[in-house]
Amino acid sequence: MIGDDDDRTVFQPGMGEESERTVFEPAGTGPAAQRSAGIQPGDVLNHMFVVRRFLARGGMGEVFEGANLATDERVAIKVMLPALAADPNVITLFKREAQTLTRLHHEAVVQYRVLAMEPALGVLYIVTEYIDGTSLSDVLSTLRPDPAALGALLRRLASGLSAAHRLGAIHRDVAPDNVLLGGGELSRAKLIDFGIAKDLDPGTATIVGDGFAGKLGYVAPEQLGDFDRALGPWTDVYSLGLLILAVARGADLGLGGTLVDAVDKRRAGLDLAAVPVPLRGVVERMVRPDPAQRLRDMDAVRAALDAAEVPGATDRHPLRTWWIAGGALAVLLLVALFFAFRSGDDPVGNSTAPVVAKGDVVQQARSAIDAALPSVGCTWLSITDIKAQGGGIDVALTGVAGDPGQAQNEISETLRDRGSSARNIDFADVALITPAGCAALDAFRQIRATGRSWLSVPLRRFEMRQQPATSIYPGKLAANALVLIDIADPSLDFALFGIEPSGRIEQILPSRTAFTAALRASRGGTPITDLGNDRYRMQIDLDHAGWSGVLLVTGKGPFDPAVMAPPLGARGSEWRDRIATLAGERGWRTDMVWFESTAPRAR
């Protein structure tokens, strides 16, 4: 397990008999003790990462615990085994793994940080987040998940694999020993060890070529030679179905043995009695031997969960966060100082509302982009306009991005993979967020909700103007931004937060009760106006130029600012997992709107 201090190791997969499953053994014994001295505890890699201790040996590399010297963040460092380092095919696979997975940002997949070469030691290595967790295979016999927890596990892992598939890679080794449970909790499961992931480009070779990869116990029939060896997302669908069956049984499935045994056991069919109804019907469609009759991808798996109304595994009310680049907000400590009343008509229109044109072609492109956006790292993006034009797709987006060029490339690749071409990807309304804000961005994106927006603005930019004597900035230049809140469910509690481009988060209002008190206290000159039907308009006065964000969190309170808005140095993987866990327990959903205050134009 990564992150334990008991000197146990992980990632030693076998490739044949069932008895050769991942082995956990004390450091200093077995094959791990004979590892090469490529790197050792105390080594510093590229003046960036210090090596602290050896953790494990895997199929292609060794894993060490380390730390980022600049931030002191704990990391895992995966170094290629010296015996393989001289093989250019191995190096190609190692690099391809990193190039794919450093682009993958999902709460159910271990986060890859960087691929680098240490010139002095001559080692190629990958840095990932460090997970304090237990291997699913180690606790399989002790788990007794209820149907909701089992369905939620399937949903979570299917979502992570879907993100990987959109980037063009399949895992091919989805098995209990390649799932870590953060804090030992199923709700924090993360997929690890994509070392044998294969690019979906049929012209791309890997170290394993088109042959077998993975351990026999959980591989799909096509990996064993059946059905013309046609591999794709459906291959991971089968393996994930077996994994869920194993968790339901609380035991390994015994589908390994020799290659002939493994083939025969799959052809004989599977006993799914341990899987609760209605989840059983979904799993049955996942583990059909013939890929043509199987659920074809992870999106189909999630749609099947929705249709079956599996408790705890529905996307009907998923979680969503809108992350906005923001300039320094006005004083946030007192609501009365943050908001200033402005009378007038309701804002007209919602600039986040998509404009759909040209029928199915546009809708298909929209669906493809919406599905890809959650895996684009350090971004929060949403479509404001999309249309077919000149044989291609024109799309305009709004939100924030740490690397707009990379985000544009990923969206373009997504459209190309779905048979469309991007004629123009407009990022004019996408603001730049600093790298320091990415940790918070990635944490909130993991609980992103779909569907209608609760927050909207009539404009994306508000010009600063001289304020009247009744303003909180009398005689000064300030922008008067209008934000419409449309919750339409008085039973939901909520909180409001402000966000800056640095990633700083400040609580504005802690609860619906506080919001209602502020509304009552300011009637007749209020910064908040009740529009009826749980809809409100508020004005935010900003005495600076720049981007600002407002975050709305709904669900069951309290919304502890220590959890929602920790300092910048306390936003590692443990914080992201904490957000995800609480969101699952309390039904949290989030939305955000962003806008820019601009300097006065010359008249």
Give a topology summary.
Blueprint: E1 44-45, E2 49-57, E3 61-68, E4 74-80, H1 82-85, H2 88-101, E5 112-118, E6 123-129, E7 133-135, H3 136-139, H4 147-166, E8 169-170, E9 179-182, E10 189-191, E11 198-199, H5 233-249, H6 259-267, H7 279-286, H8 298-308, H9 335-338, H10 360-372, E12 379-389, E13 392-401, H11 404-417, E14 422-432, H12 438-445, E15 455-456, E16 461-463, E17 465-466, E18 477-486, E19 493-499, E20 505-509, H13 512-521, E21 528-532, E22 535-542, E23 546-555, H14 561-564, H15 573-586, E24 589-598
Parallel strand pairs: 13-14, 16-24
Antiparallel strand pairs: 1-2, 2-3, 3-4, 4-6, 5-6, 7-9, 8-11, 9-10, 12-13, 15-18, 17-18, 18-22, 19-20, 19-23, 21-22, 23-24
Helix pairs in contact: 4-5, 4-8, 7-8, 10-11, 12-15
Structure explained in plain terms:
- The structure is a single chain.
- The protein has 15 helices and 24 strands.
- With 603 residues, the protein is of the alpha+beta class.
- The chain folds into three domains: 18-129, Phosphorylase Kinase, domain 1 (2-Layer Sandwich); 133-308, Transferase(Phosphotransferase) domain 1 (Transferase(Phosphotransferase), domain 1); 335-352 and 435-598, no CATH class.
- It has a six-stranded antiparallel β-sheet with strand order 1-2-3-4-6-5.
- Residues 1-37, 196-214 and 315-358 have low confidence and may be disordered.
